[in-house]
Structures are given as structure tokens and as C-alpha cells.
Amino acid sequence: MRNANVERLLLKLAGPERTEALFATLNHPAVLTEWESGVVTRAELAQAMNMALFEDLLARSANGRAYTQEAIAAGGSVYFDHGALRTVRWSQSGALPPGEAAFARILRPLGFRIKGRYPLDRLGMTGRAWAHEDAPDEIAQFFVSELHPERFSPEFQQTVTNVIGASRDPLTPVAVARLWELEREGVLPIEAAHELLPAIVGAFARQHDMPNEADYEVLLKESAEMAWIATEGNAFNHATDRVADVFQLSDAEKAKGRPMKPEVERSRSGRVFQTAYRADIVRREFRKADGSIVTREVPGSFYEFITRKRTFDQDSRRWETDLRFDAGNAQGIFKMTASQAA
Asked: Which domains does the chain have, with CATH numbers?
């Protein structure tokens, strides 16, 4: 059964055709089977935002779009497990709060809480998993990574400032006030939710201007991840479908000639398995030293697959999905963009 509030939010944001496609594609959290007309809960707004962000990822990933269309045509659907985004924890980031803070102010009011911290030391980053308190197994999580420029060379640090130092803040004072009201009350009038939704969806984008080509080259030498942020900003790096058998899926997609990761990543716990397509190649503009603009092909976003094993919890007397992440898996998955940076 569709949640009427989520449907109304998406209809105004995306229109009837796109809303219909999203409901036909994605899993429906059981917590949303009840609703009050005209009053939007934090879980409903979180689900509407996640659905819009999933659609945005598909618009930027041809491989993910093809996979999803095939799955729906075959009578299946997508279990949206998590979306990932990259941030930069740097004081010189213009009007945008540094690093994860820019998104904590959105995720916390929506009901998400940090459930795990994952050092990504090989990449000079730290990742954190945000799960929804009301439905951690069904509302897609967020894997938010922060890059630490201080771990790189002085030239790199200055270049980071060059690129993101004049970033804009996508949240207006009204949006910030709405988020505070949502965190305090747990609900918003639907008119206020209609106003807030496009603002928070718009935060998952690039907030700085076109990068200079010379700056991009400096970043690329030391961090493919920061080079990716220079062109893509805080857009979803990837979205993930939770599947029953990621090994079987990987073999099937390879047989179709899809650009799959060679090996499936396995967590140290032996309960979380991940693979992905290689990043879709996109065309982005750069400013040259003489002020002219050049277009280059760079790695964009990608589509991921995950299998999570379940364990029987003796205290609750029920099967529970292992919702954790793994630092080794994450660093392996991140190579889906690094390997094609050029």
C-alpha cells in the first residue's frame, strides 16, 4: 500500500510519471503503511528524499538505469540499501559547513543516526554509516565519507581551497528552520514538507563552481576521490540494490558484458558482500588558465550491489539483517571511480 504523504510529496516534486516509476521500482518500508493526512513524519520525508535521490543517481548512471529497467521488466524491484556521498572536512569551504556536518544537519532531523565509523586510511578518508531509527532495515542508509586534506601535501591542500573555498550553502534560513522544527516535533505540516523537500534533495549536488583544469590535475595526482569531488561535488557517488546472491548476480552481469568489478568484496565478518559496475563516464567542463573552457571525460557515479546475511538474535527471538559496513569493502568499492580517473 502506498503512503499517501510520500506520494503527494513526490507528485509535487517530480510529477505523476516519475512518481509512478519510483513506486514501481523501490521497496516500500512497512513503517509507512500508516499515515495521517496533511502531517508528514520524519520517516515519510526521509523516504521521499531517498526516492528522489535514487532517481537522480539513475539519471547520471546509464548502467544503473539499464539494470533497473531490466529488473522491473522482469517483474522484480530494487531494495534500496544505501546511498553514498563524499564530503571534504576542510575549514576553507565557503558558506558550506565542512565535511559531514553539511549533511548531519539534514540527516539527524529526518531520523538518521550514526551507527558505525569506518577508517578509510588508504584513501585519506573516514566513512560513517547513518541508519534510520524508525526503520533501519528498510529505509536506505547513508554512507557519508569525509576526505581529510591535511593528510596530503601543502600543494594539495591549497588546491582544495581553490576548488571548494567559495562553496555555496544550498540550505536557506527557512529550510534550516524547517529542519529544526522537524527534529523537535518529528513531523511537519505537509505544506512545509513540500517546501523543504526540494531544498534537501538539492543539497546532494556540487556546491562549488566549475573547477580549473590545472587544479583538477593536482588533485588527481594525490587523490582520485578528491578529483571526483571536484567535478561531482556531494552528489550520490553510488546507490545500492540489496540482492539475495551478489555472486550469482555478478556472474550474470558479466555474462551480459556489463562493466562489473572483477571480484566481489567480502567483509571480515563474512556476512556482507559487495560488488559494483565501474563508474559511468561523464563529460564535465573545466576552465583553462587562459579563461577558456574545455570538456573532458571523467568518472561519474556508479551502481552497486550488496548481499547482507541475517543472524538469529537470541534476545529479540528474530532474524536480523547485518546492516554494518566494512572498511575494506568500502575502499575496494571506491576504486570503481579511482581506476578510471584520467
From this structure: 4-338 (3.10.180.50)
